[in-house]
Design a protein that fits this description.
Elements (H helix, E strand, L loop, with lengths): L1 H8 L1 H15 L3 E9 L4 E9 L11 E5 L8 H5 L3 H8 L2 E5 L18 H16 L9 E5 L2 H12 L6 E5 L14 H5 L6 H6 L15 E7 L5 H13 L5 E5 L5 H22 L1
């Protein structure tokens, strides 16, 4: 009797539920996954956004999207929910890893427990390729991020060109040396006075000699009012001097989510164009 009454009185509720279910099926899906880092012996979360076409019999390119200092894996999906729409629009998988509060995405010789270079470029990529329908080739992978994540994206892409063929940065801290007293960098690199080599060896601007023309697709941008603007312009000039093809844009804006929520659209379009050339 109770079951009969439920269906007699709840048709409208059921109908609304089916509409919502249908909408979910026809839009990007968001997973929060728990991965394991052997190098750090701990579990680490990541957000994985799959496009609406994911159920089709095909494989997808992947964009790894890094958060900034003091952030976490959920920053992008919470603060720029439009990235779900972009996963659909550009027909790709977006992975938002956790880079800890201030890892700067490097393996630290000072803080031995912080091995985020190994985690992101090897352990996480391996997990994603194993558990999702990816195209497991460097030309079908891109990495970008904001601020600390912008530095991290170039750091990882430049040092692991066998893993990534496409790299971006938004408001990236591309040279750590001018910021000796910021963001607890001393915890990772030691104090600058006694460990200048650590700061040299872990600033992306020092990796330009690792690049060769047309091996990596590079796109970075920074607002003209950003405190990282000067190091981005300097990075751009160094790439020009070395004759490394790249795209650099600057526009009004500062170190804000308003700037990054706009910038990510162009980053993803750039990567989609690169993936299309590969296909």
């Amino acid at each position: 009797m109770r079951v009969t009454n439920f269906f007699q009185t709840s048709r409208k509720v059921v109908w609304i539920f089916l509409i919502n279910l249908s909408f979910t099926i026809n839009a990007a899906e968001v997973d929060t996954v728990v991965t394991y880092s052997n190098s750090m012996e701990k579990e680490i979360k990541a957000v994985v956004i799959q496009p609406q076409s994911y159920r089709k019999n095909k494989s997808f390119p992947v964009v790894y999207l890094l958060h900034g200092y003091s952030g976490n894996y959920s920053d992008w999906i919470k603060k720029v929910p439009a990235i779900k729409k972009y996963a659909d629009l550009y027909d790709l998988i977006i992975v938002c890893p956790d880079g800890n509060y201030n890892s700067w995405y490097l393996d630290s010789d000072v803080k031995k427990s912080s091995n985020y270079e190994t985690y992101i470029s090897k352990e996480l990529v391996g997990f994603i390729d194993k558990n999702y329908k990816t195209i497991p080739k460097r030309k079908a992978r891109a990495i970008t991020g904001l601020s600390m994540g912008g530095h991290g994206a170039f750091y990882l892409a430049f040092r692991h060109q066998d893993v990534y063929a496409n790299a971006g940065s938004m408001s990236g801290g591309l040279d750590l040396r001018p910021f000796k007293d910021n963001w607890e960098l001393n915890e990772l690199l030691g104090d600058y006075k006694n460990n200048p080599e650590n700061w040299e060896e872990n600033s992306v601007t020092m990796f330009i000699d690792l690049l060769r023309p047309n091996h990596l697709n590079i796109f970075f941008e920074c607002g003209v009012d950003d405190f990282f603007y000067a190091v981005n312009v300097d990075f751009h000039k160094k790439l020009l001097e070395k004759k490394i093809p790249h795209r650099f844009t600057s526009s009004p804006g500062s170190h804000t989510w308003e700037f990054w929520s706009n910038a990510i659209k162009y980053q993803l379009q750039f990567f989609k164009d690169c993936f299309n050339e590969f296909n």
